[in-house]
Amino acid sequence: MAVQEIWLVRHGESVANVAAARAEAAGDDVIAIDHRDADVPLSDLGQEQSRALGAELAERGFDDVPVALWVSPYLRAQQTIAIALDAAGLTEPDRRVDERLRDRELGVLDLLTLQGVRNRHPDEERRRQWLGKYYHRPAGGESWADVMLRLRSAMVDVDRLEGPERLVIAAHDAVVTLTVAVCLDLDEPTLMEFARTHAVANASLTRLRRDGAGSPWTLEEFSSVGHLDDDEITQHTGRKDDAHVR
């Protein structure tokens, strides 16, 4: 049986999300965080969000069909799915940690607020304005097109899975949005409009479905957070700017 569903989970709120929001509010150039991107853990709220996500996964019948689990190598994504499954009393499927599911790399713009980008890298800001988010690659970083390239490679592997009918991917906001773009074959204008109107909340669930291998994917649900209380919902996204917070 081929994979018929992809469930995309964004990690819960991280301590870098909190630090970035604080830095933006204070008008600082630099986000103060003591971890490299791969090692950023969840905040206390992020852990609560993850437990609520687990209850939702259990209610939806997470393991009613054979499941495969792919996870970003970054700590916050691994913590989110581990906490969720443990809180729900669900058995974790064999976990594949895949570097292609890591968050978008921002290069020289990493750990800078929007003001910090303008102040410290005005040339990059001008390039971003000219090229747009889809093609702008910060020095040492990735464009959205670069991320889509590695995700296209990962989606090829989906059709090589034998047995699982549902693939659960725990990753990041850019990975969620761009996996949808790859599966739905969105071009740049369509993707940019989609991203403008669809933010990916922390600990949200997005679902894609198809009838079978070779069939087109359809988007069944995007960034569902019905399992979270209103005061638990966080997005922490850079929206139009490349210097998004993690």
Q: In brief, what are we looking at here?
A:
This protein is α/β, with parallel strands linked by helices and 246 residues long.
Could you tell me how far the N terminus lies from the C terminus, measured between alpha carbons in angstroms? 36 Å
Rg (C-alpha, Å): 17 Å
- On the 0 to 100 scale, the average pLDDT is 94
Number of domains: 1
In DSSP terms, counting alpha (H) and pi (I) runs of 4 or more, how many helices? 8
Name the CATH homologous superfamily: Phosphoglycerate mutase-like
Write the H/E string, N to C. Answer: EHHEHEHHHEHHEE
- Share of residues in strands: 5-15%
Spans where pLDDT lies below 50 across 5 or more residues: 238-246
Reading off the top of the CATH hierarchy, the class is best stated as: Alpha Beta
Strand order of the largest sheet: 3-2-4-1-5-6
- The chain-level structural class is alpha/beta
Proportion in helices = 25-40%
